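ok trying again, last paste got cut off:
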Amino acid sequence: MNSKNINDDIGESTRLKLWETMLKLRLTEKKAYDLFLQNLIKGTSHLALGQEAIGATFGVLLEKGDYTFCTYRGHNHTLARGSSIVGVLGELMGRQCGLMRGKGGSMHLTDVENGVMGSYAIIGAHIPIANGTALASQYNKTSEVTVCFFGDGTTNIGAFHEALNMAQVWKLPIVFVCENNLYMEYTAIGDVTAVEHPAADRASAYGMEKIIVDGNDADEMYRISKKAIDKAREGNGPSLIEAKTYRHSGHSRADPGKYRPDEEVKDWVENKDPIKIYRQRLKDFNINETKINSIEEDMIRQVEEATEMAKSSPIPDIKEIYTDVWADGGSEWHN
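nice, full thing came through this time. structure:
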């Protein structure tokens, strides 16, 4: 592509927003990794470096009031919905400025104000719960859409099949998104699954369209996701999207990822990196390179400033353990 397509269905402003959001996700997670190495973040964490196009797309498309449900690999989806970098890094470091004042940590990021209804460490546990907000929207005759993200391994969990069946029977306004990064934890999904496409090949069993998309191409993710979101918002029921992607690092902080062939990792990192792909895409559409670089420079600055703010935030007072533990926010039940 050497010139801007006059029939462009996405447009420069949206593309720049996608670019900005992907950079926010990439740079924040890279900073989180650096903080791990400095021993400022304790415990484990699951980074989504290499999977930014998926989260960024939904971050741009979803409206205020819509709901997002994440897995333990949920930093990207939380940030994409508008959560602050300070809040996310602060939570990872267990600081007062964290989204939950340090009580949730990496695997339980939650930001209800921005529609992030939690990150769930139990595989598949959140999928039926996501049906709940979709059912509430349907019952209240509002236009909110629920989006539920999960990994390829979840497609072999019973809750996945039960929730898809329920969503289709009730025509719920929900979009299920399988981020298929080819590996469950240390096992290739293809080694333990009877079908080639673990999510998409099961869609027909629940009367849903088979949808497979390049999850590292933000434009393709945008087109497919917009169609599914619009369908849900118009009351026409759920969709299941299988987005093919790849994590650049291991499953978690402690995993070197040596079970993956070196050639495979090199190909995905060097040739299929969503950030590299999109930088070139913006140039292909004749978007001014000064704009492209300016957005990147500004995001680098934001992440650095947020990092210093989070590092300077105090450790929460022990009394915080008695807050936000019951419906009224108090701890009276404990007594």
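cool. The radius of gyration is 20 Å. The chain has a mean pLDDT of 94.
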